[in-house]
Amino acid sequence: MLSEKQIAIVKKSWRLLRDIDPALLGDVFYSRRFMAHPELRPLFKGPLETQYTKFIDTLSFLVSQLHRLDEFTRDVAVMGQRHVQYGVKPSHYDDVGEALLWTFGLATV
Ligand code: HEM
């Protein structure tokens, strides 16, 4: 369970990235991921530009759901099931976290 204060911090931090053009943000974020883990690149079959927007929009949606933990958990579980079919393994989520923090670092310089 997140406290109101924790939710406010996440929302405030996310707004820093949300103001950046998703095409630019996605390019930086996915480039970082694929440089660190080139083996992940072949999992992405569609155009990356579309993926940038989907990823950023989904994160925005999830951040907006943080105060509704039931819905949040359900939405993440459904998305996780789709990701199993894409060939994603639990350990791959660590690299998303690392690349996101790295992107935050750049965005807040
Ligand atoms: C915070 C975690 C993540 C979020 C919010 C996220 C978001 C998304 C979204 C919105 C899509 C579009 C299709 C759909 O909704 O099913 C997608 C597709 C995909 N994601 Fe993720 N994802 C996350 C983690 C990961 C991880 C860890 C990987 C590991 C490589 C990954 C690989 C993929 C792949 C391969 C696709 C399909 C793309 C394609 O077919 O071109 N995602 N993701």
Automatic annotation (TrEMBL):
Signal peptide: none annotated. Keywords: Heme, Iron, Metal-binding, Oxygen transport, Transport. It holds the Pfam family Globin. GO terms for molecular function: FAD binding; heme binding; nitric oxide dioxygenase NAD(P)H activity; oxygen binding; oxygen carrier activity. The keyword ATP-binding does not apply. InterPro entries: Globin, Globin-like_sf, Globin/Proto. Residues 1-109 form the Globin domain. It comes from the Bacteria. One of its GO terms (biological process) is nitric oxide catabolic process. Belongs to the globin family. This is Hemoglobin. It comes from Spirosoma endbachense.
